[in-house]
Records
---
Amino acid sequence: MEVVMRDVVKRFGNFTAVDNLNLTIKDGEFVALLGPSGCGKTTTLLMLAGLYKPDSGEILFDDKIVNDVLPKDRNIGMCFQSYALYPHMTVEENIAFPLKLKKLPKKEIERKVKEIAGKFQIEHLLKRYPGQISGGQQQRVALARALVKEPNLLLLDEPLSNLDASLRISMRAEIKKLQKELGITTVFVTHDQAEALSMSDRIAIMNKGKLQDIGTPEDLYMRPKNMFIAGFIGNPPMNFLEVGFNVEGDKIILRRNDFEITLPKEISANYMKKQNDERVILGIRPEHLSIGNEAPNTIKGEIFVVEHLGKDKLVDVKVGNDRIKVLTGQDFEGKMGDMVNVHLDLKNIHLFDADDGNSMKWAA
Amino acid sequence: MKAIKIMSPSRIAIYLLLAAVSFPIVFAYLWLFSGSISDELEFGIVPKGITLENWRFLWSEITIGTKVFENIWPITLNSLLLAGSITLLEVLISLLAGYALSRMNFPGKDFILKTTIILHAFPGVALLIALYYVLNYIGMIDKIAGVVLIKVALELPMATWMIKGFFDEIPWEIEWAAYMDGCSRLQAWYKIILPQIKPGIAAVAIFAFLAGWSEFIYSYTFIFSSENYTLAVFLKNLIGDFRFLDYGLLAAAGLFYMIPVIAFFLISQKSLMTIKFGGIKG
């Protein structure tokens, strides 16, 4: 089922939770709504569910406006963060509940419950109550209950956030596989970028009620349209440094009192939008920085702290009043207080407007 | 594994304290019981001359002095009818009202919440005359239904507040899940939410039944026909004007009056204790 949100607004009192949201989710697509808490992603999900009614705008399922369709008539499966299993019913009764409401024959209900329980490997739990099974098992039951009625749309509200780390990673893969198998359109809310990046076809990234961008994980990572996306996607996050913008001939020079970076011609061409001496934000990811010998076009700084990440080391370097993070190999041997030269992979820099935070290259 | 525990001194102290506190109550019941099965009492509570004569109201007509009393069974039925109707109405209405006040937004909700409780602040006696006029006007005077209406109206605010508190505890997500599964609002209410507030329903039912069963002042004031008497009124009449007071009979009738209360409490108290947790992981 294709889902379209058109100019959707939701307010709570004076607070605008979702501001003029336009979003199209294709049939069979797995879309993540990603953003910090309070960004409006759960509100958006609840509007799709029909539990909240938009104040203005339209929600369409397969070209039909559903603003006034009750949740029970939308044929949506939903899995909540708390799982929301019915504590007074056994696992079996929980899963059978949506089918009973559809007044399916008893035999068929039994068959379907068995089938889906098999798929989620919870057959042995059917007679137990939700309070008697573990969090991971509760989650499977909640998913089974959401999917047993073969919904047209599956909504997942932070379904993994209550699981422990290893279970979370295995469930990610399972949910993704299941979604592809069933080909069911799925919207998934999360504040965890790793989850969004690993599971979804496309990510809609939201902040303060506004959709920042929607795109494939690669898109958002490689071509962030603004500083918010650049800073939110990627771990460790992108470094930002405020610099002066100068054009000399066909080259751009980024300058501040402690360093000066000259961009080669082919890279400069992307950014020739600004006037001399304007302030811009230089963004570069830790993995595109390295520590090396003294050379021109590098940033000098003092090591503030070295963090061990297992596979790599993350080096905090103090540059003036700013601190930037550099990802280095395990063999890096610098110590706190050492002076180092940070090299930039200039092909992977981003420049943002200091006023509105939009990318000077990718912003529409 | 269960181990035999030796009681700690603090535990013993607690038991002693509880025993001391409950002693007067236990003593009073014992006195009532002994008095009801004997001609006389020795040393306060020891029965002397066991007899069932005091319980004769169960199978025969009783007369005290010149006054002939009604058969107790229709009166018991009246009391059950009164307490039962009050319980039923109070539970039903408070479940609906409590849900609305807990879950729905409508203009005047705050006002209703604040003012309903004021009704509870009135002593019932203060309303007697006004209520008499109202009942008389709507033709409910001298009828059990009239007393039921008054009692329910006066008890409802408290019951609704109690039930609202129980509804407040139910997370929205459970209710939402019910809607997503295909429930209408009414279905979600009785299939998903009510089963989870059983302890609250039991609590309200107990209070309503006890209040109805022990209801005296309105029954005494608004009911004149002896066929509509309730047990509380009957007991009052037994005492009469104290000239011919039969203590043995009064003790037996008093005990009889208490039986349903104790039975009802024992039954519903169990469901008060069984609160089922789980399903929600926060």
Note: The radius of gyration of chain B is 24 Å.
---
Amino acid sequence: MDFSYSQEQVMLTDSVARYLEKNYDFDTRKALVASDAPWSADVWGQFAELGLLALPFSEEHGGLGGSISDLVAFTRSFGKHLVVEPYAFAIMLSGAALASSANPKAAEWIERIVSGEAIAAFAYEEGNGTASPGMIATSAGVDTDGFALSGEKRIVIAGGDADVLVVAAKHEASGKLALFLVDANADGLSISPYTTIDGRSAANIRFDDVQIGKDAVLIEDATDTLERIVAQAIIVLSAEALGAMGALLEITADYAMTRKQFGQPIAMFQAIAHRLADMKIAYAKAMSTLTYTTALANSGAATARDIHVLKGQLGKLGREIGESAIQVHGGLGLTDELNVGHYHKRLLAYDAIFGDHDYHLRKLGQR
Amino acid sequence: MNVEFSPELEAFRREVAEFFATAPTPAIREAGRKTTSVFAPFDQCMAWHQILYQKGWAAPHWPKEYGGTGWSVEQRFIFAEEYRKADLPPLLPQSLGMVGPLLIDLGTEEQKAKYLPPILKGEDFWAQGYSEPGSGSDLASLSCRAEADGDDYIINGSKIWTTYAHHANRMFMLVRTSTDGKKQAGITFLLLDRMDYPGMEVRPIYGLDGFPEQCEVFFDNVRVPQSGRVGEENQGWSVAKHLLKHERGGGNAASPTLMRYLERAREAAGQTPSPFGGMLADDPVFQRDFGELEADVISLSHLEKLAISGHEIARDPAFPSMNKTINSELIQRASVMMSRVSGVGGLARQLEALRVGSNVEPQGSEFDLITMPLYLNSRATTIYAGSNEVQRDLIARSLAAGA
């Protein structure tokens, strides 16, 4: 057993961390979220430059054939800097779906995605309870020239700014869950964009009888693919969440050591000291669970149960750490000016998507 | 012992319900549905206050001679219950619940005559200037200074977490008038007639929910008359402690609001599919968690009813702290339950759709619109009015003192 990162992984992680330290401080990020831009084109370009966009793709797709532990290594700093660029969604989810398709169009899109010139949004979530692909209700009716899509997708990250959508829908003829490629300007699409509480650009997308050709099918029977790529995205999003948790622990401990009330640092009061201790314990559990699960996934041994443990634990522990961080900061923790609440909102969003901790813990308990 | 309501009380309930069904304007109703904080949207809240005043119902908890209703304990509870059922915006606590009752107890005749009527009518709104950047839980360490100069005080320093100060036209505050002896001994309680004295500046603070609910207030040689003092100079701490009983003591019961939150959560859960099949409201795990929370809310309601009826529990020195701890943590738990029902529906940031009078359609339901701001805002409940860490210290101290 060895849970350390390789020299190459450490080097990549350091260069991503250095880039973000220099170019992605809290104020820069705040201005970005407040602007009309969904994310920074410069940062995305830099991600392409650093090879991050190519990393998870295989060499035949022009990628670098990176492993899940490569991704976990550097995405922790995405959490620390609250990165709003849609890496896990556009690259991991849409990209992985395209990479799993035999459709020749998929390879063309991957080429443009890897170079950073195109964005594919992953239209999967339908609101409450799309924790498993089986809950998807959007349907693809078969007609003479192809398909007609009907339904509604929610919280599609980058959905308002994508060139193309990768849509999960039920193939009415086969009854199987399929993946389709849909042009973002297709007739019958209503895209309603917004910013999420944690600063990402998202959209709710309605499909009113959207006509697509037969060649729009990416994968006809996509349940296994979806389960696999969602599990990988969960691991990467968990790495981001862990980065946010680590930042909160550090910031909060620093604050408690410097903030004085009743003539001493508040960290000296047992009520606060024990809360800090619990935060540290929660972080240790989250870190161990993520690291071990990553190692399992790296050797292809992570089961559905392992993913339930990961998402259930980190969802719950992240909320605990976030809520404690706010409580220790007092009123200050509730202001938009301080980063603490923004970390917490990232952790709330992490918990909510792809099944919250209640869902995953219960799945685990069901066996 | 008796918990039954007489036919007269049921008639009273109908009268209240009828008034709530007809009197509020559409904007006031919308403000009520869109309230995601202890503090409802200001304009509609004050408009509703004025309508209630016309009816004679603005201050049920005030003595009748000052404009209270003279209602029985049961009537007050019925009023509170119907109020929440109708989803109306709660009136702001600072004037009616805090400085008003304080002046009734400790103000001079001149102060009462001058300040109580416009509070009752909803013409004045008072901000509470207590906390400072360096003085939160340790409030008695406050350092905003007031120096006597002829008939005036000259104030220098700042206040923070001054809720709705940007809407207020008056302010009550604690200032330091002496640095001799114990820190509590040099504090004075002041009433400020205006918020626009030369040298006074109010700066809103944006919260995690995106709204400017809190403020900072800066004082740069602000000259105010000494006639605004309540109690003696350097005796302000005991005045503040007296007021705190009104603030924490549950003059306004929290359980009707909590019950309403739970009703809304249950209603939404009835329309939300569970990932385990059926609707969330029919899911046994959800039901068990919901029941646990509901039982705690019902226990709080029982405690509040006992307290309001004069039961000895309300005279326990730790009662205000226990009451504050219980209701603040229940507000948080209820908001977590509501967020759980909303799930990803709560992730859209929707400041514009939440504004009263907005014609922006919400993403998702009106329930989804309020759950996240309510959750974020309610993180403050265990911090404000004395953090729960401080409350637990006080409760423990009451045990050590043999109470």
Note: Residues 284-308 of chain B form the longest helix (25 residues).
---
Amino acid sequence: MITTETLGARGVAVRAGLHRGWLETKYSLTDVGDIFWMLIFPVSFTVTLLFMRGSTVPGTDLALGAMVLPSLIGMSIAFGGLAGPAMQIATDREDGTLLRAKATPDGMLGYLIGKIWFFGLTTLASLVLLAIPAVTVISDLRIDGRTALLLPVIFVVGMIATVPIGSALGSIFKSSAQSMLIMLASMLLIAISGIFYPITAMPTWLQWVGQVFPFYWLGLGTRSAMMPAGAEAAEIGDSWRTAEMFAVLGVWAVVGLVLAPIVLRRMARRQTGSAIAAAREKIMTRGY
Amino acid sequence: MSDRESATEPTGLALDVRDLRVRYGSNEVLKGVTFSALRGEVVALLGPNGAGKTTTIEVLEGFRMPASGDVSVLGSDPARGDERWRARVGVVLQSWRDHSRWRVRDLLDYHARFYAPYATAEVPRPWDVDELLGVVGLTAHAEQRVMRLSGGQRRRVDVAIGIVGRPELVFLDEPTAGFDPHARREFHELVHRLSDFENTTVLLTTHDLAEAEKLADRILVLDRGAIIADGSPDQLALDLATKAEVRWTVGGERHVHAVEERDPTEFVRRLLATDPDVTELEVKRASLEDTYLALVQRVESGQAEEPEKLEALS
């Protein structure tokens, strides 16, 4: 039964969740380990730029580095939304964070809102950091009204397409150590998603694999928002395929939004103090 | 409608458990547990490790589904407890490394926020965070990160989070595990305060008899999934004591007799009636500690007998 009282309580939980996301972001920005992760993309981009000096996108006189920047932005969105929540949820389940949320009225709602807000904010922070090395190639890019409109939309759609599915994946893994597999899988998918190397230069079957996952489409979307006219010649079908991009990301969003609550609820039901004690025991003896 | 009113049991029972059974696969961990607790009562679930204490408390918290039995916690079935019910129940969890980089005050304040919509005229919710920090003795550590706290301090954070919503009922699973004597004593004072001033019902588990005696109005002894004794610490000593030792002196000679019946009075009466020279009479009943240890031992040796019986049958 939904009454005004429960609606009021939900509203309070959503606000508490936003507060949680903000606090966690603040804590994250003072944590050396987290800052290290946030710096990975900007630093790897800088290194990539150094290696790509003088190279151009095949068939154009565009600097290859200029193509990598938008792709990296897309990848940061996908990575922050997919691998981040997957690993975090596995950890939070093991250390009792989720059980605490369960023991609090509307605590699960607050927790989820907090996570989405947290990953949104930290992903945004790493994108801002990415802008620092980006100034060196900015002259090769087209930053205009279309960018200002498309980039935020892609950011939000990308978050909706990845955070739920990432959370669902995180709840499937039995332990936080297993969730590291997500990291590896993400790396593999990034390699074939046309971010560091044009996807058209890969074997056709690999192109198809790459096009199943959101990494490719987010990279394509951000390229379409920032690359100068004519750059679509380097893409599959000589087109930005904007409609297809939103369609594929939309499918991922729907799958995630349907799947995540089911999987999360199932996982949360299994959470008990003794399950956490068992996990603690295991980690204490094993050391990881 | 006030939720407080509708929830108040006419019987004054905060907890009512009847024939609770829990199974893990084919292993029955709770074999028909029955007990109840009055509002404001402090009840200790005492038993050796593996007795089923944690399983019992997890069912009552609504975190585990029982195989069968009737469970009522503040008038609701915990398996179907809604968020309003959840707001009236406090669960003190054992922290490990969760929220380790949060500052103590932030963490408590975050959890407190969820309870404000559930305040009633009688129960202002939540606790004032600074006041509660004072109550659990963490004022000086309010700005510290959870990971920098000692085990005892961290445990007090757990307690504070568990009671920040001013619950009517609090569950504490092995609350003082890993405490030094000083922290233990402070914690005991906190539990007394909860039951005396806040009229909070407390159910705690422990394997430490001394702690159960110090804290509880009533002790339930659980062993291998069944409650084998239920009563006040004094009652328990009476109920469980099987032996009392009677010592006396006649003509400079010391006598000792172990009375097998529960009540040694009859033996003493006969002794005094038959022998007028008895002096230095002394009746010593086994302490609750002796009784508990004997009981644990008895159950353990009973466990060893079962396979032998099986062998004899086959």
Note: The mean pLDDT of chain A is 83.
---
Amino acid sequence: MEKADSKSRILVEMKQVTKAYASRKKLFTRSSPQVLALNSIDLSIAKGEVFGLVGQSGSGKTTTGRLLVKLESPTAGEIFFNKTPISQLKGPGLKTYRSRVQMIFQDPYQSLNPHLSIAETVLEPLIVQKIGTPDTRTEKVVHTLDTVGLSPGEAFFNRYPHQLSGGQRQRVAIARAIVLEPQFIVADEPTSMLDATIAIQLFQLLEQIKETFGMTFLFITHNLAAARYMCDRIAVIHDGHIVEVNTADNIIRHPEHPYTKQLIKVQPGFKYTR
Amino acid sequence: MQNKYFVSRFYKGWQIFIENPLGKTGVIILSVFMIMAIASFFVPLIDPMYDPMTGIDPDIKLSTGPGLTHWLGTDNVGRDILAQLLEGAKVAFIVGLSSAFFSIVIGTLIGMIAGYTGGIIDAILMRFADIIMVLPSLVILLILASLFGQFNIWIIVFIIAILRWPAVSRVIRSQTLSLKHRPFIEASRVAGASHVRIVLRHIMPNVLPLAFLYMTFRVTSAILVEAALSFLGFGDPSQVSWGMMLQWVWKSGHMFQAPYWLIPPGLCISLLTLAFYMLGRAMDEVLDPRLRKEGQTG
């Protein structure tokens, strides 16, 4: 009974997912060498959970995020969302999936189109998904901008990205991600380009969003401290392998894998809190 | 209110543009030609004999030099050269701008499609562009004109456009390639936007300035091709153009007898193409800040 219950609460599941990138094919060689970004990883994220994915650059953590939002497709394995496999999704099915899963990108300076105003940027998902009428959409955008702390929303409507600070831009990017009220958000190092005080504010914002909307997050970061602050559970990824999954506290207090121990060791601050 | 940003950006761009000596000179020359082109509409209204094509001065049987009634003189049948020159300015603008416009429309579309889709479509489109790029447009036009007789001016415009898009599409393609993987495009994909929407809404505004820059260079080449074609006798015979004027000078044997007839159209062709070239160079500076710095230090 209890087992069935925990199963039904799983929102996202990755089974034996492998992602290989082919290096550029040379003219006369038949097989092209491959780079394994992910090597048959298993992951399951429960509904309403903030799941952290921690690893160094090149470990495959961003690839995981991109696979989940279907910016890329796995080479092998399957990803389930609400127990439905997503790799075969096309057309309307894919569009519905897109309305349920959103992403917050790393670099707020790159993730907003410089030619679109804030309103146009945040409106786009609603227009694309054909949600509401023009009036209700505008209302929704104002409301969402207020939610992410850009208030009053109307004041930001006709501004352009270059007129905003990095933190404000990232708030716009968050607004764009939550305006569809998705069930699952992949946050790919949302604060790595911002300074620490702004980062804390954004963490609080994400937490508040999680509370109000009950969204599930995959929080990708290289920063164990940030992951501990934000996440319920943390997976440590190294060279395309998930080396350890545990609750945030347990990972920090009782790391099992040598790589995790090493990560904790190089993290300033943890030495003293222990 | 919403356009305030674009107005201020346009204004800033214009400041840089007009401070550039090339841009300033280009604009001045260009406005002179524009006044000429506009004047061409009014000159025949003064007196029917000033009609560039059909207006014949009844008192004149031979080509005459500049005088009071004909400021730049007349051609061998008594038509006013200044009137022809003004009409030529209008035609040069029509030919240059419209064929440049067509070619950037084709080039931008193909460039965006090739860059955005990639793969086999990209390869096919770009090889096709390569093939057209190496075709000598003047020779092609000459062959076509000698096969099908003399063309209407609009057909010439169209053929020039068809032969001149590949360079534009190459540039637009490479720009599109660099945009394609920018996170804002991916964010739009994640939101569920269609490819058409992404291309039109996100890629196009980002490549259009470049397309307009290339348009100025296309104008130059279109005017030159049309002039050469007309001079060689394959232009639109019902249409006065500077190249056509040169053709008439040559055909009527006045090449060395009537400098007042030969020099103005030649000078106008050179000056107008120069003006557009200068415009393009100055626009380049607005769009590419690296050039700006170089220009200022060096």
Note: The interface with chain B takes residues 69-71, 94-95, 98-99, 101-103, 105-107, 110-117, 124-125, 128-129, 158, 160, 163, 173, 176, 180 of chain A (CB under 8 Å).
